[in-house]
Design goal:
- This protein has a 5-stranded antiparallel beta sheet with strand order 4-3-2-1-5.
- The protein is an alpha+beta fold.
- The protein has one domain.
- The protein contains 1 helix and 5 strands, in the order ββββαβ.
Length: 62
């Protein structure tokens, strides 16, 4: 699943693949300025964080 948050200076893109990691990519325009992995102990913790604390829903992978 993908979500994103839009700010004046940058955009954060979050991607969750159903495991214990969430990928965060921060971009200014087309340039990637930060790329992080947020790691959790359990899948349920990762899913809860993604659903509750990451930006608006963008869509599923096809």
């Amino acid at each position: 699943m993908r979500k994103h948050e839009l700010y004046t200076e940058y955009h954060d893109h979050f991607e969750y693949f159903g495991n214990t990691e969430i990928e965060r990519i921060r971009k200014q325009g087309e340039k990637t300025i930060r790329h992080d992995w947020i790691i959790f102990d359990t899948v349920s913790e990762a899913m809860e964080f993604f659903n509750d604390r990451c930006g608006e829903f963008v869509g599923y992978y096809a």
